[in-house]
Automatic annotation (TrEMBL):
<dbReference type="GO" id="GO:0006865">
    <property type="term" value="P:amino acid transport"/>
</dbReference>
<dbReference type="InterPro" id="IPR018313">
    <property type="entry name" value="SBP_3_CS"/>
</dbReference>
<feature type="signal peptide">
    <location>
        <begin position="1"/>
        <end position="23"/>
    </location>
</feature>
<dbReference type="InterPro" id="IPR051455">
    <property type="entry name" value="Bact_solute-bind_prot3"/>
</dbReference>
<feature type="domain" description="Solute-binding protein family 3/N-terminal">
    <location>
        <begin position="37"/>
        <end position="266"/>
    </location>
</feature>
<dbReference type="Pfam" id="PF00497">
    <property type="entry name" value="SBP_bac_3"/>
</dbReference>
<dbReference type="InterPro" id="IPR001638">
    <property type="entry name" value="Solute-binding_3/MltF_N"/>
</dbReference>
<keyword id="KW-0732">Signal</keyword>
<comment type="similarity">
    <text>Belongs to the bacterial solute-binding protein 3 family.</text>
</comment>
<protein>
    <submittedName>
        <fullName>Amino acid ABC transporter substrate-binding protein</fullName>
    </submittedName>
</protein>
<keyword id="KW-0813">Transport</keyword>
Length: 341
């Protein structure tokens, strides 16, 4: 009996110790508030997603997600700093605490979700891997690429997918591997390989950098699923919730037709869902550790999902990408947000 009591006492003590340890775990939100900005990991330069201009001002779909997080917390989208990271270094930077969130066209996979100590906070762009070739090759399909040399960036799902594609189709190829996206594109543009492969969004983004963009064509095949989204560290559920629901808030705002232009008018709406989303009623923001007007802050400073998509990668931009899978679920796409209630 004494042994049982001792064992129970020990278990209780260990449980209390674990609880105390969790209570003392550092809060990313608190750290961000204390330093006054969000540190966001992005690409080293990918048009439409994260790209600095000559003055060092960053723009892009992934950049705007980070600005939306800053807007929700500080009511100021400029309170974010950007760390340009290679594909190889991006996860280490997040694991080590060098950055608070990774928003760098990163594919959500089982291995990354389970073995790196990281959590994906959503999918802000549904993508798939494709191929780009010179029109002069007169190639109409990726299945005509047997024997081709293929420029690919190492340390990415792209490298694995292209190997699987050629193997599954009994085709031979010569991989020409580079450490960075810029090196890969420059090698393709200089003629060191026949084919350039990456996510389809990346093909359109990189094509605008080529010496003669109109001389190149993206082939029709999509050979993989590439759900791209922001990533945070394991162990801080509040921060995971904030990043996740910031993305959901932009989708919900689009669903309800809440835009930067009509925001003040929408705040006067009698629609109970709109009132709840904008914090006129309820306490959704407080549940996240934010203010009631967190969605108002996001839309006012950054916009809804459609506004972010259209100004960065949409049909009127140089990339000219249609919504496709990234349309709302009500319009044949996959973008769908749980209810804010």
């Amino acid at each position: 009996m004494k042994r049982i009591v001792s064992t129970l006492a020990l278990g209780a003590a260990l449980g209390l110790g674990a609880t105390a340890a969790l209570a003392q775990a550092p809060s990313t939100l608190r750290n961000v508030q204390n330093k006054g900005f969000v540190q966001c990991g992005v690409t080293q330069g990918l048009a439409g997603f994260s790209m600095p201009d000559s003055a060092g001002n960053w723009t892009g779909l992934d950049v705007d997600l980070c600005r939306a997080v800053a807007a929700a917390i500080f009511n100021d989208p400029t309170k974010v700093r950007f760390s340009p990271l290679s594909a190889k270094d991006r996860f280490t930077a997040l694991q080590s605490g060098e950055i608070d969130v990774l928003s760098r066209n990163t594919t959500w996979t089982l291995q990354r979700d389970t073995s790196l100590g990281l959590n994906f906070a959503g999918i802000n762009y549904y993508d798939g891997q494709g191929f780009m070739v010179r029109k002069s090759l007169n190639v109409k399909s990726a299945r005509e690429l047997s024997g081709a040399s293929v420029c690919v960036q190492t340390g990415t799902t792209t490298e694995l997918n292209v190997a699987d594609f050629f193997r599954a189709n009994n085709l031979k190829y010569e991989p020409v591997v580079f450490a960075s996206a810029d090196e890969t594109v420059k090698a393709y543009d200089s003629g060191r390989c026949d084919v350039f492969t990456t996510d389809a969004s990346g093909l359109y983004a990189e094509r605008v950098k080529l010496a003669k963009p109109d001389d190149h064509v993206v082939l029709p095949e999509i050979i993989s699923k590439e759900p791209l989204g922001p990533v945070v560290r394991h162990g801080d559920d509040q921060w995971l919730d904030i990043v996740k629901w910031v993305h959901f808030a932009m989708i919900t705002a689009e669903e309800l037709n809440i835009t930067k232009a009509n925001l003040d008018q929408m705040m006067q709406s009698t629609n109970p869902e709109i009132r709840r989303v904008l914090g006129v009623e309820g306490n959704g923001g407080e549940a996240l550790g934010l203010t009631k007007d967190w969605v108002v802050r996001i839309v006012r400073h950054v916009g809804n999902y459609a506004e972010v998509f259209d100004r960065n990668v949409g049909p009127s931009t140089r990339l000219g990408i249609s919504r496709g899978l990234n349309a709302l679920w009500t319009k044949g796409g996959l973008q769908y947000a749980p209810p804010i209630r």
